[in-house]
Amino acid sequence: MSKESAYTSTRQIPSTFTHFTLGPINFDFGGGKYDDATLYLKKKDVINLLYDPFNRDLDHNEDVYEELAINGCHTATCANVLNVVNETDRQKIYKDLNKVIKLNTGMFKKLIFQIYKGDGSGIKSTKTVQNNQKVDFYYQEIKAFYSDEKFRVTKVKSKFILIEII
Question: For the domain 3-7+23-165, what is the CATH code?
Answer without folding.
Answer: 3.40.50.150
